[in-house]
Amino acid sequence: MRLRRVLTTTLLALACAGAAQAQPGAVERLHQGNRTSENVPSLPAQLIEDLNRYQNTRGASFAGWTRDGCVLVSTRFAETAQAHRVCAPLGMREQLTFYPEPVNSLTVAPGAADGFVFGKDVGGNEFWQLHWFDLATRQTRLLTDGKSRNQAPLFAHDGKQLAYSSTLRNGRDTDVWVTDFPNGKARTVVTEGGQWSAQDFSPDGKQLLVLKYVSASESYPGLVDLASGKLTLFPVDGGKASISDFRFSRDGRAVYYVSDEIVGGKPQEFRTLRRHEPASGKFDVLSAKIPWDVDQIELSDDGARLLYVSNEDGIGKLHVLSLPGHEEIALPELPVGAIGRAAFSPDGKRVALSINSSTSPSDVYVIDLEPRRLTRWTRSEVGGLDSSKFVAPTLVRYPTFDKVDGKPRTIPAFYYRPAGGPRKIAMPVVIQIHGGPEAQSQPTFNPTAQFLANELGVAVLVPNVRGSAGYGRTYLGLDNAEKREDSVKDIGALLDWIGKQPELDASRVGVYGGSYGGYMVLASLMHYSDRIRAGVDVVGISDFSTFLNNTESYRRDLRRAEYGDERIPAMKAVFDRISPLKNAGKIRSPLFVAQGKNDPRVPYTEAEQIVKAVRANGQPVWFLMFDDEGHGFHKKANSDYFGAAMMQFWRQHLIAPESKVGQD
Questions:
Q1: How many domains are contained in the chain?
Q2: Residue 436 CA to chain centroid, in angstroms?
Q3: CB within 8 A of 366, min separation 6: which ones?
Q4: pLDDT per residue over 633-649, tens digit each?
Q5: Cβ pair 133, 120 in contact under 8 A
Q6: In angstroms, what CA-CA distances link 338 with 232, 307, 313, 416?
Q7: What is the pTM for the complete model shown?
Q8: How far apart are CA 64 and CA 125, in angstroms?
Q9: What CATH number corresponds to the domain at position 554?
Q10: Is residue 638 part of a domain?
Q11: Do the domain assignments include residue 342?
Q12: Does residue 409 lie in a domain region?
């Protein structure tokens, strides 16, 4: 496609042909296809070739069992992730959907219907439409209106009803809708305002468990009588709690759920698996002996077994219980990693699940419960690389600025250390910060970290600063509202820790993050530009006030619950004080900002305004935007180009010059 050049200022001569950029104040804006860039240099062919194998790794995620005993998986063989079917261990992956946009929310129908529901948007705008894929005819049918935002499809146990969440009513609130499947007309069953989702149909299909999500620490469960439309909210012990994964027992007498509500008058740090019988009042905490969060639960169709996954210091642990006694069933040893979706086969005798480890992309495994046998069903490619040479991170904990019980609080971080023996040259470091902020970095396969470590000799540190999920209710709330910059101080403490490691070069540290992690990059540069050499901000927040004003209306109150309300003068003052945009003059390190034009969460204006402000202070900024992406880059060609540009940025602004081990 013809390359169109738009000069926004007088174009100066480039310093050198291969890896130069325009001087501050002279910006060359290039449009090529769906890509817009400023100051991003030509990318060396050798770098692209070296990266190619890492960028051709792929994973497979379990999405459900089909009625013929096959598994439905999501994986990418071209540009985007699509639905595939696998019918035998390590068998052929049969691709079922072929769209230029990725598909998500794959949900297999139980009962007589033979097929699955999937979601798809346009250009990353997240206005997903739900579709039905009929496995018998291979025909696809649109289920939603084509305009609103639709997600979280859920079938009744007999497959005759489908519930989902939608913004159709007013574009702002996410209501719960139910349709008689496959040909009924959808109707609203929850219109209370806020963000609602369906959790489980009763065994007879007459009732629906629902949940209102306010924030990572606040949600409210309820029950809808589908005939009358009456919504009954359940009491929340302590008034406020994080609650999820509501499920009916198969006899309909009890509910299982995950919660951090108070127990016996005592606050609970972690989300535990619980069972409650409304009629008798009987209540049990089933995972009380595990001092970590429970992430998901599922019941077998026959009601004989229940599974749940605990998140133990970032590692997923699968548990299966026999019912009704809740005795633990012994399982084969599983690969160490993060566990994705897990579910029983229709006959209840097997469990399929996704496992993603630090040295292997996500793959699907099946456990036969009676012979206690683990079988791998997919083997995802690693670009022809020798996986034995992938770097497995170690978990480190470093002290930060405040104390707990008189001792320094410690922050967990995963440390990817390049292989090799003692070094004469101290290693440069990239700190990778997750988004959310109510998310958690886990030791999953990270091709970016592997390339940095194996090919460029860069150490990678992936911290879970305060505000991260997985470490208890108190830790989750340590960065809320006016305490926002305390999480930035945790990055400052990590810089202190790096300075005490002889093998790491404290003079060559970069920061990288996306979404809220992008804000953390900008805020870290704002406070520590004298200690951070360069930063990469992907779809990041540059000012909380402008972000909250411009994010999509269906998300605004959801984000105010976490960050604070910009309409309150005191909170607005906090936002102004901590805003990277309003403190752009403090950012004195080279910056690379990347963005999707259709991002509904963090609008592209957040990127454009910080680029302009930092450049106004004479600092070099690379800028990259894709017209067909939203919150992150989900098309392979776009992701590959960004990855190569980022590696060139690190090579140019971080890796050279070198320092000797132990040198200050």
A1: 1
A2: 8
A3: 71, 89, 350, 351, 352, 374, 375, 377
A4: 999 999 999 999 999 99
A5: no
A6: 35, 16, 10, 17
A7: 0.91
A8: 26
A9: 3.40.50.1820
A10: yes
A11: no
A12: yes
